[in-house]
Specification:
Elements: H1 12-19, E1 27-34, E2 41-48, E3 61-64, E4 77-87, E5 96-103, H2 115-124, E6 131-141, H3 174-187, E7 191-196, E8 202-211, H4 214-233, E9 236-238, E10 253-258, H5 260-263, H6 268-280, H7 282-288, H8 295-298, E11 315-317, E12 324-326, H9 328-333, E13 338-340, H10 349-361
Parallel strand pairs: 1-5, 11-12
Antiparallel strand pairs: 1-2, 3-4, 4-5, 6-8, 6-9, 6-10, 7-8, 10-13, 12-13
Helix pairs in contact: 2-10, 3-4, 6-10
């Protein structure tokens, strides 16, 4: 079996004794941000004299960017700008978790701050009321990098019995999944479901529908909660798009997209127009669908294991081997949404939703694909 971390074996009852101590009117606020890798999350906590009621009550803060891959040592201060606040499921009320944008000392957004541009784009298209839902797949590992629950030598039985499974020989790590789900609900994240995935030790949770910029905010915070829950259990959650080579499914972050026009009667016409636009910008989308300009997705989008080929664009009704899937019910109702199955599990949801909005929601006569 996989190795769990030493810290997970510390006395949790003793820990709870301290966590249950009263804290008066003070409030612990944990600031959370995306680091220079574009994938990792960092956090630190401060004390406030009272419970903040909104983002406006939260001060800006700073951190050492030279230790997160975001600045040089001789000029390392980076700014944390609070943008969305959630309840803290670990320290409980009145304590808060706060998602932050990272800015340089010049107040320009950091290179991995894709939220800043995404917010501008979503503001431009707010009258279309763009809804997004993202399906985050991930794999549980021991701290040694071995898939959690897999035999130390050899492999588990081939794929087939694990998807949406039940049973000790098929579902590995359900405690983590259920704790994460409850933590998201407590925090106020728009989590809409979860299930075991095709590869053993692989799971998925869904966030949305969220409108505009909320999609990225809620998914990033849900990822933080997942990593934090896994820390308590002594295991690791990886968003690697292909954590195991061979005849095993990879991990994606499928995105479901709709506008008010697509959701209205006869909206299939607008869905088809959007798909046509996407077909013309396949390469551009692949470049932003993982943090390494498509290099991660090369290992996953092979045309096998319920994926399309990274080299080709395709679309179809109820086709999980296509780039874009129109759900069968949408095909029957002639309105609703479409699913882009290409984003990798480690994608930045801000970059993905931003690119999706620019491609699908700009008027056809505007071919610049740039938004100020």
């Amino acid at each position: 079996m996989s190795y769990v971390s030493d810290s997970s074996s510390l006395n949790k009852a003793l820990r709870q004794q301290y966590l249950s101590l009263p804290q008066g009117n003070f409030c612990q606020v944990t600031y959370i941000w995306i680091d220079g890798s574009g994938e990792g999350l960092r956090n630190k906590t401060r004390t406030m004299d009272s419970e903040p009621n909104s983002i406006a009550d939260l001060p800006e803060w700073n951190f050492d960017g030279s230790s997160t891959g975001q600045a040089e040592g001789h000029n390392s201060d980076m700014l944390l700008i609070p943008v969305r606040m959630f309840r803290d499921p670990f320290l409980l009320d009145p304590n808060k978790l706060v998602l932050c944008e990272v800015h340089k000392h010049t107040r320009e957004p950091a290179e991995t701050n894709h939220r800043n541009q995404c917010n501008k784009v979503m503001e431009k298209f707010k009258d279309l009321h763009p809804w997004f839902g993202m399906e985050q797949e991930y794999t549980l590992l021991g701290v040694d990098g071995h898939p959690y629950g897999w035999p130390r030598l050899g492999f588990p039985k081939p794929q087939g019995p694990y998807y949406c499974s039940v049973g000790a020989d098929r579902a590995f790590g359900r405690d983590i999944v259920e704790c994460h789900y409850k933590a998201c609900l407590y925090a106020g994240i728009a989590i809409s479901g979860t299930n075991a995935e095709v590869m053993p030790s692989q799971w998925e949770f869904q966030v949305g529908p969220c409108e505009g910029i909320e999609m990225g905010d809620h998914l990033w915070m849900a990822r933080f909660l997942l990593h934090r829950v896994c820390e308590d259990f002594g295991v690791v959650a990886t968003m690697d798009p292909k954590p195991m080579t061979g005849n095993w499914n990879g991990a994606g972050c499928h995105i479901n997209v709709s506008t008010v026009q697509m959701r209205a009667e006869g909206g299939i016409e607008h869905i088809e127009k959007a798909i046509k636009k996407l077909s013309k910008r396949h390469a551009e989308h692949i470049r932003v669908y993982d943090p390494h300009n498509g290099e991660d997705n090369k290992r996953r989008l092979t045309g096998r294991h319920e994926t399309s080929s990274i080299h080709d664009f395709s679309a179809g009704v109820a086709n999980r081997g296509a780039s874009i899937r129109i759900p069968r019910q949408v095909g029957q109702d002639k309105c609703g949404y479409f699913e882009d199955r290409r984003p990798a599990a480690n994608c930045d949801p801000y970059a993905v939703t931003c690119e999706m909005a620019i491609t699908c929601m700009l008027e056809e006569e505007d071919d610049t694909h740039e938004v100020e």
